[in-house]
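Researcher: Next entry in the queue.
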Amino acid sequence: MPEFSDFIVYLDESGSPTIANIEKDFPIFVLACVLVEKSKYAEEIVPAIQKLKFKYFGHDQAILHEREIRRQSGVFSFLQTSQELREQFLEEMSQIVDDCDFTIATAVIDKQKLVDKYPTPYSPYELSLQMSIEHLALTLRDRDQLGKMIHVIAESRGKKEDAELELAFRRIADGDSRMRSNQNGIITQLDWHILFSDKKSNSAGLQLADLVARPIGLQFLRPEQKNRTYEIIKKKVEWWIKSFP
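Model: Structure for this entry, 245 residues:
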């Protein structure tokens, strides 16, 4: 039986990884990886998120999705009923993110600069994945996890997309990435495994990753704009937010 890591990774993205028809209002791709110790995840994070859901929905099947929360749509349409209720919900959700003990490894790809600089650029997803895994590997090394099996949980985006991501992931994990990495010696000392989870899996870890991805992108795009969520998030970035090009 393999020796499992004490940690697990959940990843999600904000923005589209495609470089065709770049969106003017969000011309970037953000990959956010949440690294959390399994014991704290099971004993602290999952119960905290479930309590929030029981309080506001009466059940724990609602999925915290940043886009729906921001638009106050779907199961979050109740946020339209009063500003006081909306502020209370957002404050309690932000407090959970603040209180929960996890680390973020993240990368932002400026898609317009990417296509302007490179005639045939690599996928923003592949680029951001490598940069994020580099920081994850450094953090796991510092947590004495080298030689152990580390699972990375990603939300399924479709059969073709999942296959492309898995191929890129395996290249990076095996130290055979198409991009040069100074951290290959550390990355290859971990036994990386990626798992794809259905959108309806109701994973607390994936929901955390979803909640932090867009605020990171907004901070990159508009650093002068007030970003309450980012002020919480930045304390959990162990190294720094990578950007490319």
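Model: Strands lie at 7-14, 28-37, 103-110, 149-155, 191-197, 242-244.
Researcher: Noted, moving on.
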